[in-house]
Amino acid sequence: MRYLTFLLFYLFFSNNVQSNDIPNDEEYYKLGVKNYKNANFSEAYIIFQNLADKGDRNAQFNVSNMYANGVGITQDFKRALKWSWMCSLGGEKKCLEKINSLKKKIRRKNN
User: Fold this and answer.
1) Quick one: DSSP state of residue 40?
2) pLDDT digits (tens, 9 = 90+) for 2-61
3) How far apart are CA 58 and CA 61, in angstroms?
4) Structural domain that includes position 88
5) Strand blocks (E) in 13-97
6) How many whole angstroms separate alpha carbon 45 and alpha carbon 50?
7) How far is CA 51 from CA 1, 7, 13, 105, in A?
8) What is the DSSP string of 45-68?
9) What is the CATH number of the domain that holds 55?
């Protein structure tokens, strides 16, 4: 009985702590945008990267832009291309356009 009481107590309070501490993806994305606007680029990158890994198309586009422009991270056209490609798989037109731009930059850099 003591074990059951402890288990119920744990489940009740652990869910409350988790639901209050962890923002949903939309809130997390907004936090990334806020960090970016406030020039906290490293923090913004971490947030966008986490969301991009989960398949968020807007975050993938933002990570691509950050790599392409070297904002908050080292400029890397190939990684930017990777994230634009991932974003384009969801049918995002802006990502398809970005791919062509990045391919040109990579060609110029290699020549």
Assistant:
1) -
2) 554 554 555 555 554 455 677 799 999 999 999 999 999 999 999 999 999 999 999 999
3) 5
4) 24-110
5) none
6) 8
7) 42, 32, 27, 26
8) HHHHHHHHHTT-HHHHHHHHHHHH
9) 1.25.40.10
